[in-house]
Design brief:
Elements (H helix, E strand, L loop, with lengths): L4 E4 L1 E2 L2 E2 L4 H8 L3 E5 L4 E5 L5 E8 L2 E5 L4 H14 L2 E3 L5 E3 L10 H6 L2 E3 L3 H10 L1
Helix pairs in contact: 1-2, 2-4
């Protein structure tokens, strides 16, 4: 998939900071290339799947050129660790728990599909269905 998806965290409908230290703990073991000037990581999972990751903002992490299941599994781990949601422009917003809906901005909650997804397979299915 060559489009961008975003890992974000919200409180009371407003973007809030992500724990970038925790994000690096999850992602760094999979980094095969880095550009510290742009906060870019090229990650590769054990099954050889890759994605580009930009950690250039305190309130979102951008994934692009995403491989398949291995990257989705890693995304599921990252979302749990950061207590975050996955925003797919033009597609669903994926949350960890149904009660997370209340934390989303009204536009995401009311105008787009919101899906509870716990695993990489669930994330992959929700993206493919959109």
């Amino acid at each position: 998939m060559s489009f961008d998806i975003f890992v974000c965290r919200f409180e009371n409908g407003e973007p809030t900071r992500l724990d970038m230290g925790a994000a690096h703990e999850v992602l760094d073991p999979f980094a095969v290339e880095r550009d510290p000037r742009t906060n870019f990581l090229q990650i590769r999972t054990a099954d050889g799947e890759e994605a580009g990751v930009f950690l250039s903002s305190s309130d979102n992490i951008t994934f692009n050129r995403i491989g398949g299941g291995g990257i989705m599994d890693l995304l599921a781990v990252l979302l749990r660790r950061l207590d975050a949601v996955l925003v797919v422009p033009g597609g669903p917003t994926m949350i960890q728990r149904d009660e997370d809906r209340a934390r989303l901005p009204a536009a995401l909650r009311d105008e787009w599909a919101v899906v509870v997804a716990h695993t990489g397979a669930e994330i992959y299915r929700a993206i493919r269905a959109s």
